[in-house]
Amino acid sequence: MINTQQLLFVVILWSIWRARNACIWENKQANPVSTCLTASDLLQDYNWCCNALVSTPLSDHSMTWEKPPVDWLKCNVDGALFMNERKFGIRVCYRDSLGSFVQAHTMIFLSKSQPLNVKPPL
Asked: Where residue 61 falls among pLDDT bands split at 50, 70, 90?
């Protein structure tokens, strides 16, 4: 298991790398405070997920990924809310009928709604 100092080092490096890429590829101004906050948020999210996995009992019905039919692609989608930054993001991953990776996309959007206005899924 990775220790806390190693994990902190990794998330800080990743945040710096991401801020650097935003400067180079998106002409965004680097903000050291924002970069550190991003690292802190990432570390908190990671710890929360680890704790949720340990404390949440597994159900009798486990979900498993199934390959799509021959000549089809399967598209898996995941989403996340970043309340502090007023952003939300989605990830999309495509796999073929062999289960092989085809393509993936990550998109981040600015939120125009207050979190209270967002309705939970049915």
From this structure: low
